[in-house]
# Entry
Amino acid sequence: MHSKLLSIILCLITALQLHAVTVTTTAGELAMVVTDYSITNLTINGTIDARDFKFIADNLENLKSLNLAGVTISAYNSTLDDQMIAGVYNHEANTLPYCAMTGMTRLESIVLPQGLVAIDYGAMAGCTSLASISIPYSVSRIGDDAFNSCSSLTHLEFPGRITYLGSRAFIHCSNLAAVNLYPKNPLVIGDEAFADCVKLTNVNIGKNVTKIGNGAFDGCTALKVVFFLDESKLEEVGDRAFYNTGLKSIDFARTPMLKHLGAWALARTHITHVNIPAHVKSLDEGTLFYNKALTNIELPTTLTYLPDYMLAGCDQVDVGFMTRNLGNIGDYALYNQSQHESITVPYKVYYIGSHAMAGMTGLNEITSEPLVVPELGDEVWQGVDQSLVSLNVNGQSINDYMAAMQWMDFVVGEAQLRGDVNNDGFVNYADVVGERRLIVDGSSQGLDMSRTDVNGDERVNVGDIVSIYNIINGSQPAYKPYRTYFDDIVEGLGTAETTTTVNLDILLDNAIDYTAFQFSITTPTHISITNATLSQRCLAHEIHSGNDNGQHYTIVGFSPTGENIEGDNGVLLSLSISSTRPITINNTDYITLDEILFADKNENVYKRNDVKINLLGSSALDNVVVDQSSILVDVYNTQGQLLRTGVPRSEATNGLPHGIYIVGGKKVIVR
# Structure
C-alpha cells in the first residue's frame, strides 16, 4: 500500500517537473525551443524580442511563473506580417514591449531582467493573478496601463530612477495596499495612475514628485493618509486627484512649491481639517465638495475668488474660512451648509453666485461688511426664510440693502464689526491704538468696552491686538482661538556688577512661533523700569510700555504685518532698570513677571504666571512647565502616519499600544 502511494507521488513530481522548463534562445526563436504549451514555469536565458513575448502571450496559457533574470531584450521593428497588436511598432531594446503579456490571467510571478529600462504600454495589463513583482532599479519609465487591472498585486517598490509613471499604470489594482514613491529625479504621477485601488491605505510621496495627475487616486476608498516628504517639489494636484477617497489627513504645509489644486481634487473625502497655504495661487471648482467631516479649513489670505461648488455640502465646516480679501463667491460655493446660525460676508465681496448659499436653513443672522451692496446670482438664498434672519450692515448702507433685490427680504439693521473697538464703523489702526492704550495704560477713553475682547477668549490682552491686525491684514485664525499654557523657557540675564542701574536681557527659548507678547511686571519700591528695547529677533515689531504710577508695568510687543518673532532662542528684549540704592544679589533686588502672554498668528494666547527674575547674574527658568491638558495636538506614528487629530495633549496616547509616537511635534514613549 505504501509502495503504491510512493509511486503515485513520484509520478506527480515527475509531471510537475515536466511543466518547469529552462531554455536558452536567440531573439525571435523562442517558439523553436519551447514546444510544450502546457508548461507552468518557464526560465529563459539569452536574447528575446517582441515576437517572443507575443508567442508567450498567445500560446502559454497555463504559465504561472516566468523568470527573465538571464534575458536581454533586443529591439525589434514589427511589421503587419508579424500580426502584433500594434501593427507597425518600434519595440525598443531593454523594454518590456507594448502589451507584451496582456491578459495572462494565470501568471502569478515574473522576474524581470536587471538591465530593463522601461515597461511599455499595457505590458502586464490584465494579469489578474500577479501577486507581486520586483521592478529593477534600472527602470526609469512605466508606461500607460502597464499594470492595469492586476487585481492580485499587493505590494510595490518603485525604483529611484523612475522619471515617468503613466496614465492608468496601476488602475484597478484592487489589492494594492501601499505606495511609496521616492524618485531621485522629477516625476509626474500620471492621470488615474492608481484609480480604484480600493485597498490602498497609505501613500508616501517623495520630494521630487512634481505633479499628481488628474484622478490619480480617484476611488481609493480605503486611502486615509497621504504623506509628503519635507522639501517637496510638488507644484500641482490635478482634477479629481483624491476624489471619493477615505482620506482623513493631508498636509500641504510640506509642499512649498504647490501652486494649483484642480477641480474636485479633494471632493467626497473624510478630511476633517485642511490647510491650503498662501503659496497656492489657484483653486478650481468643487475642490472640497461634499466633505461631510470637514470642520476647519485654512485658505490663502490672498484668495479673492471662492470657486463654484468649493464647499457645497460641507455642512460641518466653520465659516471663519472666508478670508478678508474674498471678492467673488462662486455658484453653489456654500450650498447646503445648513448648520450655520450666522455668517459674515467679507467687506471686499462684490458678487455672490447663483445658489451660493442656498440651503442655509439654520441662519438667523448675517453680517454683510461691504458698503456697496454685492450683486447676486439667481436664488442665492433659496430655502432660507429671510423674514426670520437679521441682516447687519454698515449704517450708511442700510437704505441700499433695503432696496436691493434678494437683500430687502431680510430684517435689515446696523452691524457691529469685529475689531471695531472704537465703534466708528471701520476696523483700522485707530482700533489698534485704542486697544493698546487700554492694555498698557488702562485708558478706555473712546472705546466700546463690550467690543474690546476681539478674539472672544473672555480676556483683553495682546491676543486681541493680533486679532485686529489679522482683520486689517486680511488674515483669519485657523480655528477658534484658545487660551493655554506654554512650556517654553524664559530667563533673565543681568549684569554681575554692583550698581544702581542694570540692563536686564529677557531671553526666550521657544518651540512655538509667536507673533506678539505681553508682560505684566511688578517691581519692589526701590526698583523702576526706565526703558524697554526689542532685540534683533523683533525687527518687524514695535514695543509699547506703561505703568500705573506705582510699581506695576505693562509691556506689549507686536508686529503690524503679522510677522513672527525670528528664531527659536536668544534675547527677546532688554529692560533698562534703575534703583534708589546699589543693586546686590539678595532677596529684594528682582522683578516679578506676574503674567507672561505670547500670541501666535492664529490668535491663540499662551500664558504663564509668577516668574521671579534676579537683576544680577543669571536666573534661568528651566522648569516653566504648567498644566498643558487644554492644548490640542495631532498624534503620528514614527512612519509619519496621522493617528489622531485635535485631541487634548493629556489624552493623546490613551489606548495606544506600546511604542514611540510623535505628539504635538515631540517624541512620546508609551510603555
Residues 5-18, 478-483, 618-630 have pLDDT under 50 and may be disordered. The CA atoms of residues 86 and 547 lie 86 Å apart.
